[in-house]
């Protein structure tokens, strides 16, 4: 059934106190990722902040409901992979379309995350791919968990019903996701809340449609890696070839 996963039960039976702790763990995870000293976490160690960013909310979720992570991450079959491809293309298309519309009116910042690939050797590329894979899964976790929490609190306290709670959850989680990207895009508010927000809506739709965080994670990874691949190719193609 479409959108069945928007029920907070998708993360297991969690009390209001449990959801509060899950939300605190999301904030803690983002703080760890944002504040990790770059001089300390270099080379292979770059994977550590990304791993903590992803693990902290999932460990907290497991502590609040042992079935939580299993309900969020379902099997990843060939069909699920195809869904990731479909939603990955849709995410890239939607965000690029909005960016092209905005470009004549507002300056847009490049994603500098892939700059490390400019002069990277094979090991650095592998580390980059592993780190971003883990981090992008984490970004799905820290976006969908607040969505489910808002659905739960809305249904329990406001009486707006499941559809109203879902709408509130999508709005809040999209704003949070967009805000998380402000440092990445040099605090470009329009870009983060319009372009990145549009991409987020497609990624959220992929989770709500499938109930499988692997599908939205796969779509997210394909979207971002496509952007990084274009930048990498541009910096490595021989001039005049």
From TrEMBL:
InterPro entries: Rce1/LyrA-like_dom
The keyword Membrane is annotated on this UniProt entry: yes
Recorded GO MF terms: metallopeptidase activity
Domain CAAX prenyl protease 2/Lysostaphin resistance protein A-like: 124-225
Keyword Acyltransferase part of the UniProt annotation: no
Transmembrane segments: 12-34, 40-64, 85-106, 126-151, 163-182
Keywords: Hydrolase, Membrane, Metalloprotease, Protease, Transmembrane, Transmembrane helix
Classification via Pfam families: Rce1-like
UniProt-recorded name of the protein: CPBP family intramembrane metalloprotease
């Amino acid at each position: 059934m479409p959108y069945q996963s928007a029920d907070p039960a998708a993360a297991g039976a969690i009390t209001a106190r449990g959801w509060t702790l899950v939300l605190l763990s999301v904030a803690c995870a983002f703080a760890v990722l944002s504040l990790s000293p770059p001089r300390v976490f270099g080379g292979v160690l770059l994977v550590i902040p990304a791993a903590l960013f992803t693990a902290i909310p999932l460990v907290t979720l497991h502590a609040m409901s042992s079935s939580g992570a299993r309900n969020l991450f379902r099997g990843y079959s060939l069909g699920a992979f195809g869904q990731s491809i479909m939603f990955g293309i849709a995410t890239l298309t939607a965000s690029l379309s909005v960016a092209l519309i905005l470009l004549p009116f507002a300056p847009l910042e490049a994603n500098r995350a892939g700059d490390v690939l400019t002069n990277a050797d094979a090991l650095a590329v592998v580390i980059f791919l592993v780190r971003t894979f883990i981090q992008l899964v984490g970004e799905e976790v820290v976006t969908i968990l607040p969505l489910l929490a808002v659905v739960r609190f809305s249904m329990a306290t406001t009486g707006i019903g499941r559809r109203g709670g879902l709408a509130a959850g999508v709005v809040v989680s999209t704003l949070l996701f967009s805000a998380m990207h402000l440092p990445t895009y040099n605090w470009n508010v329009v870009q983060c809340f319009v372009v990145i927000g549009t991409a987020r809506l497609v990624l959220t739709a992929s989770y709500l449609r499938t109930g499988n965080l692997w599908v939205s994670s796969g779509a997210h990874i394909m979207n971002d890696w496509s952007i990084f691949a274009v930048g990498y190719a541009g910096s490595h193609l021989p001039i005049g070839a």
